[in-house]
Amino acid sequence: MEVFSGRPRSPERHPLTGRSRQHRASPLDLRSAAGQVFLLQVVIVVLLVVAAVAAVVLQTARDAVQRGRRESVVAAQSFASAPGTAEALRSRDPTAVLQPRAEEVRKRTDVDFVVAMNTQGIRYTYPYPSEIGKKFVGTIAPALKGRTVVEQAGGPPLPAGKGTAVQAVVPVTDSRGKVVGLVSAGITVKDVAALWLPQLPIILGSGAAALALSMTGTTLVARRLRRQTHGLAPAELAQLYEHHDAVLHAVREGVLITGTDGRLLLANDEARRLLDLPADVQGRPVRELGLPEPITRLLSSPEAVTDEVHRAGDRLLAVNKRPTYRQADQGGSVVTLRDTTELAVVSGRAEVARERLKLLYEAGVGIGTTLDVGRTAQELADVAAPEFADLVTVDLLDAVLRGWEPTAEGWRHLRRAAIGGEQRMIPVYPLGEVITFSRRTPQMRTLQERRVLLEADLRQAHGWREQDPERARKALECGLRSLVTVPLQARNVPLGVVNFYRTVDSPAFQPEDLSFAEELAARAALAIDNARRFTREHAMAVTLQRSLLPRAQPDQDALEVAWRYLPAEAGVGGDWFDVIPLPGARVAVVMGDVVGHGLHAAATMGRLRTAVHNFSTLDLPVDEVLGKLDDLVLSMDNEENAGDAAEGHEGEGVTGATCLYAVYDPVSEACTMARAGHPEPAVVRPDGTVTCPGVPASTPLGLGGYPFETAEFSLPQGSQLVLYTDGLVEDRTHDIDVGMERLRQALDGSERRTPEETCQAVIDALKPSHSSDDIALLVARTRIFPPSRVAEWDVPSDPAVVPSVRARCRETLREWGLEEAGFATELILSELITNAIRYGLPPVSARLLHGRCLICEVSDGSGTSPRLRRAATTDEGGRGLFLVAQFAQRWGTRYTTRGKVIWAEQFLHDGTSATPSRTPVDFLLDQFDDLDT
After folding, report:
1. Where is the GAF domain (predicted)?
2. Number of Cβ within a 10 Å radius of residue 837
């Protein structure tokens, strides 16, 4: 502040530059000019030292290599010109003669190797005998022409170790000058540091001396500059003034500086505003400014003041005053002014904003935690009450709650979806009630106008009161005061309205509350719309999947079946099951699981279930059925991964599935099963024992190229076969082994239960509270065909035995009380046996099964399947299968490991066969008539 007092600065005070005194005392500060010059000098000296060291190292290495070249040439030439070398190369064993000489020369001349070789480069000598006889590594072509070759090369290991190998190759000539061999000598140059290290202290010493001189000069220059500028550069002095002036006029506190003579030396912009000072105030006496007397007296007195409050017009100012200098002989003071009235208003607004931001954060976290429309609406009501409103109601279009796309036709009918707040004694429409709003109500207006509406005083809200006058009167008596109604809309589609109410115990809503209410409703609307769309897709997927699953049990005699299907909360998956009657009173049970969730998984499941039905109609073995399904899944993958596949389809990608396929024969009590990546089923024996049948695990469907293993085991009458998907036993909270053990415990005592009771017991014990995957469960209790309902005969391959088989058939049907079905059955059996004897292979057998229908089976050892055809007039045969097809409701062929079985079924009604009303003669006559025309 000495700038204004005109007095010289005392030694104890220093200008406020934003730097510490200790920092400015260093002459080598890199932010100063002296420090930067010193840094540049250091860099130059270091570069010179590095360059000198590099030059010495390179020169030393070059000298070492040159010395090695000379020594290699001398050693090679000496050995090549030695007496007897040429004769030894022509001797029968050059290595025996030359190897000792070469080693002696190597040790005497201090080279690393001396190699003698023939003109093809094959070594005769080498320090390591294992390398003798191998090809020399180097250039020998010039030496064969009589020249000396010196080069750097690498080769086999040497006693000297690794390094730069310098080798010379010289020719060995006989008395006529002909080259009879070659000699190579070399040295490994590996320790150059010993040559240049003695010169390093001189270079480093010179560099250190240069650095010392540089530092001394820089320090002297820095001290001189600091004494002249008092530690500040001219640019820093100007910058310091500019910064102080900018800060002084930017702060939200008034600053006044007075001198010893009572004149105002400085007043910043905020002080001029708070005290309404004129523009030419600077330099004028304080008493001439027209300020209130308490403030004038305070500015004129020398006493210090701390947080005194004085009135200046309509403002309350908090005043602080301090002397500019601590010395008593230096006058002047600094006064600061702070407007406490505006500070209180700003603080209140900041607190409200902070609470609003906190509430918005809670809304972002607390709204939309589930994909349930009603729950999301209740979360909105719970977040807004009581922090923002005393009572909150949420009314949604009925279509939104059902997951449908809302339309304008349903705006007048909204359903109360949520109520929040502690003011439950206020009469409002209860939850779940459908409210028909009139056109003048704020709710209907906000839907039509799509904007937030404020009713600051509900006593004056005529449209709101006309909706239900009696209910409105009671609500006002209970203290309801104001209302803000906001449309809930997402993607520009209205979903409903949210109503924020305040009572007389809270301040009425103000216009500034509307933006917050709108922001809160916008966040909730997005979550509600997501839940609505999920509800729609979930309902569609559930409907699709339930339509693809079995709706009723098929008529069959082998199993008593019950099932359960529970879709996941987050989305429908691809779990499926089926019960398929097969020929011969057998039944196939299927359980599968398609990877993924949603419509794609449900549609894929439908395709697989249809395919299993088709494959079962062919009566293929269980492993072949899984193989066909595997091929189908692979083809589905190829379709989805085709280049023309639409982008963004749900479930796009590789399709995967698991499947378990089993066939149960009630006659033999045998069950044949195979599974493709599916959990192994459980079996409850009649004695209550719960076991796993040990079906081998095969790869899931869709991998391709892997076989499926089959297991066959016996299921006595009364056994329960339990099939399920992994959603029943797997959970994020526990391992699958824990789920299997829980399933085993739930099945204890199931031998006394019906399949329906077993299903319910398992679901009650294992169903998770929040299911993330579908659950499919099927329980099948086995039945058997009583021996009294099965008749079987071996038939010799002789057509003469057919009448005797027909007689046995007639007698069996009489015992079963099926005399009326005798003629048709005998005809069917006769035709099938005749065909088997005539066109098939032995052994031939016949079997009758009496259950829900009468089944006639004829088996033989041939794999050829008969086919139905229209016989010509001149044909003697070809009408047998036609007769079978006319008298039987169904017939077909299934293949076995020993041949085939031709079967025919006749449906029974009250113990009689449902035979056609026309006789076989009529059919035959019709056929002949058709052929004649």
Report:
1. 372-538
2. 21
